[in-house]
């Protein structure tokens, strides 16, 4: 049984540490609902969310 995600959502995973990262990038990670490495969050695809993801794309992985 495989659960399929809704077509207008995106799942993101935090894959790198936040040590040595700019304060604004840390705040963006928190705003997306991520806390620790390998934590994940399912978000709606909106222009705001896509912009936040593009800002920190070197820290996360998207599915």
Protein traits:
63 residues, alpha+beta, three-stranded antiparallel β-sheet, 29% helix
The gyration radius over C-alpha positions equals 12 Å
What sequence of helices (H) and strands (E) makes up the elements?
EHEHE
Uncertain runs are: none
Oligomeric status of the shown chains? Answer: single chain
- What portion of residues belong to β-strands? 15-25%
Mean pLDDT value: 94
The helical percent reads 25-40%
Count of DSSP-assigned helices: 2
Q: What is the terminal-to-terminal distance?
A: 18 Å
Q: Which strand order do you get reading across the main beta sheet?
A: 2-1-3
The computed structural class is alpha+beta
Shape: globular
Task: Write structural notes for this entry.
This protein is 29% helix and 22% strand. It is an alpha+beta fold and 63 residues long. Strands 2-1-3 form a 3-stranded antiparallel β-sheet, with no helix packed on it.
How are the SSEs placed, and which strands pair?
Elements: E1 9-14, H1 23-31, E2 40-44, H2 47-55, E3 60-62
Antiparallel strand pairs: 1-2, 1-3
Summarize the structure.
This protein has 63 residues and is α+β, with helices and mostly antiparallel strands. 29% of the residues lie in helices and 22% in strands. It contains 2 helices and 3 strands.
């Amino acid at each position: 049984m495989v659960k399929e995600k809704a077509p207008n959502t995106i799942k993101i995973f935090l894959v790198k540490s936040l040590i040595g990262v700019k304060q604004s990038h840390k705040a963006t990670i928190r705003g997306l609902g991520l806390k620790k490495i390998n934590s994940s969050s399912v978000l709606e695809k909106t222009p705001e969310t896509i912009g936040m993801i593009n800002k920190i794309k070197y820290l996360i992985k998207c599915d």
